[in-house]
Amino acid sequence: MPSFTTRDGTEIYYKDWGNKSGPVIVFSHGWPLSSDDWDHQVFFFASKGYRCIAHDRRGHGRSSQPWEGNNMDTYADDLAQLFEHLDLKDAAVVGHSTGGGEVTRFVGHHGTSRVSKVVLISSVPPLMLKTAANPGGLPKDVFDGFRATMEKDRAQFFFDIPTGPFFGFNREGAKVSQGLIHSWWTQGMTCSFIGAYDCIKAFSETDFTEDLKKIDVPVLVLHGDDDQIVPFGASGQQSVKLVPKGTLKVYKGGAHALPNTEPEKVNQDLLEFLKA
Q: Any catalytic annotation for residue 97?
């Protein structure tokens, strides 16, 4: 399996599909999943001549499971080292959920010298946590509950999330896919316990406001207005106001897992943005 070793000794697995001379797209996945969650998009774009890179974040999927470094700054540094390892240039970076935070922190800390465009899908920026300055965020009790439930019965918790809010399968009339539920559970259970546990703090408490302001390339924000995981009003709706060159597309009735629940629409929106 293709991988590289970061400067702190962590092995990061990645997929490198498609035309090695084609335009580059780098995908960053959500919690607690892996690069497999991007297969709809990676296959679609690789089939159209793009070079598609998708990595498993440290602690997730087939990457190493370090006890330390499970935080947003290190995730961003790992992504920067992946760019260096493959000498990627003029790349579009696409992040979903926690991956959108990773992408935002990566650009905020490492700049856009290797980046041409950014896409944030159902992403956690600017800040998920409710604070005095962010009254639309979620209370810390919600995330404390995540951690407590993980400690009690991670396997059941990782079944309840995709069965319920992640794909919107708890909504009346929803067409439930048992395959998506089992895929989510399988990917989630390959994540190290400490990696999944620490990542809750990383995606909920990291403030990306200043990172968003530094993104000087075009940004596409895709978000469902029925996202039960990362509520639209406190995330995508605010992020697009902070980036200098932002475009927002709202998916009416859209759930959190847009790349899975509406892959054809997401692929077309991405393709139009990349070609523009």
A: yes
Give the tens place of pLDDT for each residue, 203-214.
999 999 999 999
Taking CA 89 as the corner, what is the angle to CA 211 and CA 46, rounded to the nearest 5 degrees? 105
For residues 128 and 256, give the distance between their C-alpha atoms in angstroms, rounded to a whole number: 14
In the beta sheet, which residues pair with residue 11? Answer: 5
Active site residue 29: no
Say if pTM beats, i.e. exceeds, 0.90.
yes
Token pair listed for 221: 């924000």
Query: What value does the mean pLDDT take over residues 12-19?
Result: 98
Q: Out of 28, 34, 97, 192, which one is annotated catalytic?
A: 97
Polymer length in residues for the chain:
276
Q: Which two tokens stand for residue 230?
A: 């990362």
DSSP state letter for 56:
P
Model pLDDT for residues 90-113, shown as the tens digit of each residue? 999 999 999 999 999 999 999 999
In sequence order, which residues have a C-beta less than 8 Å from that of residue 107 and are 6 or more positions away?
93, 115, 118, 211, 214, 215, 217
Q: Decide if 239 is catalytic.
A: no
Q: What is the pLDDT of residues 60-72, one digit of tens each?
A: 999 999 999 999 9
Q: From CA 203, how far away is CA 125, in angstroms rounded? A: 9
Residues 225, 251 contacting (CB under 8 angstroms):
yes
Set 56, 77, 78, 227: catalytic member: 227
Q: Annotated catalytic residue: which of 29, 60, 223, 256?
A: 256
